[in-house]
Amino acid sequence: MNRSVLISGCSGGGKSTLLAELGRRGHAIVEEPGRRIVRQELESDGAALPWIDMAAFARSAIELSIADHATARGRAGWTFFDRGLIDAATALQHLTGEPVLDRVSVLHRYNGSVFLAPPWPEIYVTDPERRHGFDEAVAEYDRLATIYPALGYDVVMLPKIAVADRADFILDRLETR
Q1: Is the per-residue pLDDT at 128 higher than 70?
Q2: pLDDT over 90 for what percent of the chain?
Q3: CA 36, CA 164: separation in Å to the nearest integer?
Q4: Which of 49, 67, 90, 146 has its CA at 20 to 30 Å from residue 106's CA atom?
Q5: Is 60 within 8 Å of 37 (Cβ atoms)?
Q6: Could you tell me which of 146, 157, 168 has the C-alpha nearest to residue 118?
Q7: CATH code of the domain containing 53
Q8: Sign of dihedral through CA atoms 175, 165, 156, 74?
Q9: How many domains does the structure of the chain reveal?
Q10: Are the C-beta atoms of residues 6 and 115 closer than 8 Å to each other?
C-alpha cells in the first residue's frame, strides 16, 4: 500500500495547519515545496520566486517534490505531503505548455486518495510567502480539481471544519480503505 498521502487544493485552504496537526499526532509530514523555495530564494536574493519567474519556481518545486517523494518511500506509517509533484507539474504545464505531467505522474505516484482543500475565503490570508490573491488561488484549485481525477486519483474533498476534525476525517478515511 502506498502510504504517501497528498493534501492539495486551494491555496489558503488550511493545508499547512492541517499538516501541523497531523505532525503533532506523530505522523511524518512534508512541508509545501513552494514555501521552502520562497524562503530559500528570499534569503539568497534568488529569482525563482512565483512573482518573478514562475517557470523557474515550478521547476524547482518539481525537483524538490521528486526528492521529497523518494525520501518518504522508506518510511513506515503515513507520510502527509502539503502539496507535491502533481501541483508543481500542473503549474509548469499550465504556464509553458510543456507536457511534464505525462512524464512525472506515472513514475511518482502517491496514495490513491488525494485530499483537496476547497476554497475557503473566510480563512484565506496572504503573507510574505503567499502574495497572490484569492481569485488566483481559486483558478489554481480548479486546475488541480480537474487534473487529479484525470490522473486516476480518488479525490476526497476536505470538509470546512475545525483542524482536529479535519485530521480525524483524513485518518478515518485512510484506515477504512
Answers
A1: no
A2: 62
A3: 25
A4: 49
A5: yes
A6: 157
A7: 3.40.50.300
A8: negative
A9: 1
A10: yes
